Amino acid sequence: MAVSSKSLAGPGYVILNVMRAMNIIALVMVIVASWVMLVKTFVVSKFFFFDAVSHLVTSLVGVFLITSEIQLFKGYFARNWPLLAPDSGLVTLGSAMVVLGVSILGNLNKEATSQESLGTAFWRIVISAGILVALLGLLNVIASFIFRDGANGISSRQVRSKGAVAVKSPTMLSSSGSLHRSYTQRSMAERQASVRSNRSTSGQRFPVISRPLNFNEQFREYVQPPAETHKPAETHHQNPYWTDV
Fold first, then answer.
1. How far apart, in whole angstroms, are the C-alpha atoms of residue 179 and residue 239?
2. Helices (H) and strands (E) in the chain, counts
3. Which pTM does this prediction carry?
4. Residue 204 and which of 54, 148, 187, 225 are 20 to 30 A apart at CA?
5. SS3 label, residue 108
6. pLDDT band for position 101 (50/70/90)?
7. What sign for the dihedral angle of Cα 166, 170, 172, 173?
8. H helix or E strand, kind and range, residue 69
9. Terminal C-alpha separation, the chain
10. Cα–Cα distance between 148 and 8 in angstroms, integer?
11. How would DSSP label each residue in 190-217?
């Protein structure tokens, strides 16, 4: 169910932007829930190190995904994280959100983060954050396939940022996508220029080989004829000690 008829581009623009706002809210809740469990783990369990690191990493992943959603560093994501760049789909984002939700809900089985240890209010924050981010992650994966146009190379993020304009102009790319492509093309051009310069400095494109015994005329341009050797002229040196008898 792609956007081939352009009928879903307009509604997709609205739906995907509403989902973006919900994604940011859910990821903020993930950060809050992670820090709640981090504090409670310290209080109840006397600070289990690896549990604390796990909650810290979860919160940092939430910050990272929020940064990709609000598009603060387009060039950085285009070069180093292309699956989260503005020209990519939402499958990677949705999958990461599902993993975060499952991780948060799995922590509720521990004694330090159980309902009795967290309290009803904090426990509700944690469980709602896990459920919401997991469901939104699944919706992002589904929406990525619904609102894309694979035939024209249009991703769901492009529909989310441009709407029907992205479908009318399939060749239009975002600035980060252009930066990524120009960066790759520039690197390839520099390598090709380096190879050409090396060839030009050497003065010859192919190595020079001597003429074979059975020479084929079609390889004449690649073979350097052997240099002519000149036999030095015979010179007669008079022996200073030679005397005519």
1. 83
2. 9, 0
3. 0.65
4. 187
5. coil
6. very high
7. positive
8. helix 49-70
9. 118
10. 9
11. HHHHHHHHHHHHHS-SS--BPPPSS--G
